[in-house]
Amino acid sequence: MLQQFPNISQSIADILASLSYLQGEFVLVVGFLTLIIGDLFLKKTRLFGLLCTLFTLFLSGIFLVLDLYASATATLIFNGMLVASATVIKFKLLVLVITLISLPFFYQDHRLRQHPKGINDFMSILLAMEIGLFLLIGSANLLMLYIGVEMISIASYLMVAYNAYQKDQAEAGMKYVLFGTVASAIMLYGISLIYGFTGTINLHGGAMVQGFEGVGFLASSISITMLLAGLGFKLSAVPFHFWTPDAYQVAPTSVVSFLSAAPKIAVFGLLYYIMPFFQEGDVFNQFIIAVAIASMLLGNIAALYQDNAKRMISYSAIGHTGFMLMLFVLPQGQILDVLFFYLAVYSVSNIAVFMALSYIENNYGYLQISQFKALGKQIPAIGACLVVLLMSLTGIPPMAGFVAKFLVFSAMVNAIDQSAVLWLLVVAVVTTVVSLFYYLKIPLNFFLKQSDANPLPAKSSALLAVLTIVLTVVVLLLGIFPGLLGGF
Amino acid sequence: MGLLSILIFLPIVSGVLILALPKSLNTWYKYITLVACAMQLLLASYLYYAFKTGDGFAGVNQLSQYQYVENLSWIRLQLGSLGTLQIDYLLGVDGFSIALVWLSALVMLMATLSSWEIKTNLKGYFSLFLLLNASVIGVFCALDLFLFYVFYELMLLPLYFLIGMWGGVRREYASIKFFLYTLFGSVFMLLVIAGLYLSVTDPATGNHTFNMVHAMNPANYSNGAIFNLSSGAQIFGFPARLVGFIVVFVAFAIKVPVFPFHTWLPDAHVEAPTPISLILAGVLLKVGGYGIIRIAYGIFPEAAVSLSFWMGLIGVISIIYGAMNALAQRDMKRLVAYSSVSHMGFVLLGVASLTSEGINGAMMQMVSHGFLSVMLFFIVGVIYTRVHDRDIYNFRGLANHMPVFTGFVMVAFFASLGLPGFSAFIAEAFTLIGAFSSESLNGYVPRWMAVLGALGILLGAAYLLWTLQRMYFGKLRLKKEEWKQALTDVNARELTVLIPLAAFSLLLGIMPSLLFDVMQGSVNQFITLFK
């Protein structure tokens, strides 16, 4: 113990130097505390929660942008617990933008607004989750990674079950918690194995890679697989996807929309950072290939049989996860821009689809696709937006989803001499065609089917419709001018 | 803004105008569309008229020889180690495309005239129609593979809705089937396009490029790239370029369609409203033929040569199989749809022969089939709009009841079966000459295929004449008594569609040089790719 003491001053110096890298996170912490404490005194003032959250997110975003221009090289901070680099900041910014887009959505969600304690508590959970997402993206240490995953998990359990008063809602929330806890436990066990085998939980520095080489194939496979299983749960990749459809179906739509985008970005951001440390052996690649193929096949095929719109989108989300996972068999240097573009476009399209679905739900109370018959006559603009967005998710030009899909294909074709890439591509193409079939079900019911029912729309604010249209225009613009997306 | 861009964006602007006009003006929509399409045809005619021919204007694999070229840099994406994604807005036409651009403009105008029968949701119909129009013209003008693909896929969505919303009873099934078939081929093609992009470099800038003209020159392929001729790369144990050719060929073969990828066509045609059938048969099938010539054959010539026997065989099977199926149909529209499969088989046979006659014949067949299939579908549409029935056996002796109409039916039928004096005769004769001489010239296609192709013409005569006899000759006998009043003779609007189509078919039959002169240079240049 005693010989550790001389390092203390050095450690403290490192921590002090590191503080400046985390301004974005500190702002979030301050905002989170302000919101919780303020809410105690300003009972049920919706405006306060909104302004506080909005201000916190914006300020955090400003710091991130400033950091983006300041930090050119990757730096390890807090004694190697976190990493700060331009890439990390880009992923954080993407998460932040997605959160900002989701913010008005939360406020439009009837189920969140009807909560007896108001929506302010929800906003504080959101800010806490944001911190978790940021920490996960930046983690350079397995312990930090675990803390990040847990912060996200706990926040999302709360969000999914925020007003689960009905039986099936409580069931889905419970399922989610149980699966999540088991996944975390497995991941933690994997981390402890890794620590036992390699003697380190620091990802960087090469000690872990060397350690894996020393312990043999079986030991390293088991520990890496367990670690990835925990991440796979957060990505809702097959076979860790069981919670997704149920949770998506019963959770408030705005929450589903957020959870289908933000945690995915964070986990992919993390996976992007850690991939070179695990790619040495075959295990990582084989795990990715198996999970990617299984996710694409199962997600897209199961989506064919869904009538609940949210459930269908949740299965399609599994398919998209598989599609993005394909990229991780390539070397790290080749995938960043492609992955980032795909994530951004996918998240925006997905959120816009959920907004449109929520608008329909608020106005007509329809949840099933078969109920959408002839709605195109009532709300043609939303129908047209849905066509554009769903075709973007399929990957039809001139929508942004097409460019994203093409970039992934190009990156994969570039590495076609890897034997698995070809099979991945074949599965990706076939499932793309399959996905068209179920995505088209919504336009089919909207425009092609006839209906005698003449539903009377309930009065609902048009904000969601406006947001949907704006995001649809963004998707179209990004499809025609993909260079508009910053970072390129 | 160049002339080709105007040709492409005129319909889009008109479509936006239609969307912006209030619903109370919905009688204007068709006139706006009509004006847009008429202006488009005028412009296309001017382009055709001013098109320069001769040695210096062959095009094909010479970018400098293309005409009306427009080149704007469109997308530049920095992609880390993948380099810069360079996508250009590159338009241009040569002898192959100018004829099809003009044909598209003509068919679009005819389809607009035929759209008078559409009564519901006019705003949606005409805006989608114009979007389809723009993307079709775009496909024929694009020289950048990415741009080509964007236009190619952009056709699908409007068509899905045009068939699905204004179609017949089984329209949902037909429209999704059409969409899935086409997408299946084209997403695989997207992989090949990605591969080509990564293989081809722009000789001027050194960047990777989607330029399809550069892709036709083996010198532009970087060393060791997957589609480089000498790299010897393999996909699933087959040479990469062979796989690339097959994938691209299948994508377009679905579109043409040739046996065995044709099963979407009868459904789509039968369910589509008449104007959309006209566009499907008149233009969209040609997109397939054009793609096979320009992309599959143009970019992978040595793979095409090695498979030319199979190409010819598929062509011949399509000719015979389409004709036999047509013989067996009771539904007039299905009959015409299968006759399209048969006639488009000649295109493939002609191209497979890789002789000057064969390719000229194939192009002539595409243009000629453009006129004649539009006429045939329009004829079916004339009867269908009047009585909502298409069963051949429900009609008899129409000749006395609708004499003018029957006159045009006879022109269309005789022209389609290859009567000398009409364009189809020239087209089929040249195709068969090409196929027949191939064995002695280059040995790509055996003689018996030409013989079987000629048999297809005979079968064509059989189903057309038999239909003529069953429906139009004899004593008037209809399924229902009230049809007698409903089946009035053709009106002025219908005449404005039928007369020009018949006239153009006759004109090309008598003066095929009108088309051959324009194509000659390009065809000769095209053949040099295979030497």
TrEMBL record, chain A:
Residues 139-433 form the NADH:quinone oxidoreductase/Mrp antiporter transmembrane domain. GO terms for molecular function: NADH dehydrogenase (quinone) (non-electrogenic) activity; NADH dehydrogenase (ubiquinone) activity; quinone binding. Its EC number is 7.1.1.-. It is a multi-pass membrane protein. The keyword NAD applies. NDH-1 is composed of 14 different subunits. Subunits NuoA, H, J, K, L, M, N constitute the membrane sector of the complex. GO terms for cellular component: endomembrane system; plasma membrane. InterPro entries: NADH-Q_OxRdtase_suN/2, ND/Mrp_TM. It comes from the Bacteria. NDH-1 shuttles electrons from NADH, via FMN and iron-sulfur (Fe-S) centers, to quinones in the respiratory chain. The immediate electron acceptor for the enzyme in this species is believed to be a menaquinone. Couples the redox reaction to proton translocation (for every two electrons transferred, four hydrogen ions are translocated across the cytoplasmic membrane), and thus conserves the redox energy in a proton gradient. Belongs to the complex I subunit 2 family. Pfam families: Proton_antipo_M (PF00361). Keywords: Cell membrane, Membrane, NAD, Quinone, Translocase, Transmembrane, Transmembrane helix, Transport. It comes from Pelobium manganitolerans. It is found in: Cell membrane; Endomembrane system; Membrane. One of its GO terms (biological process) is ATP synthesis coupled electron transport. The chain crosses the membrane at residues 20-41, 48-70, 82-107, 119-137, 143-164, 176-197, 217-243, 255-275, 287-305, 312-333, 339-360, 381-400, 420-440, 461-485. This is NADH-quinone oxidoreductase subunit N. The keyword Heme does not apply. It catalyses: a quinone + NADH + 5 H(+)(in) = a quinol + NAD(+) + 4 H(+)(out).
UniProtKB/TrEMBL annotation, chain B:
It is a multi-pass membrane protein. The keyword ATP-binding does not apply. This is Oxidoreductase. It is found in: Endomembrane system; Membrane. It holds the Pfam family Proton_antipo_M. Keywords: Membrane, Transmembrane, Transmembrane helix. Residues 142-443 form the NADH:quinone oxidoreductase/Mrp antiporter transmembrane domain. Belongs to the complex I subunit 4 family. The keyword Manganese does not apply. GO terms for molecular function: NADH dehydrogenase (ubiquinone) activity; NADH dehydrogenase activity; ubiquinone binding. GO terms for biological process: ATP synthesis coupled electron transport; electron transport coupled proton transport. One of its GO terms (cellular component) is membrane. It comes from Pelobium manganitolerans. The chain crosses the membrane at residues 6-22, 31-51, 89-110, 122-140, 146-166, 178-200, 242-265, 277-297, 303-323, 335-354, 366-387, 408-436, 448-468, 495-516.
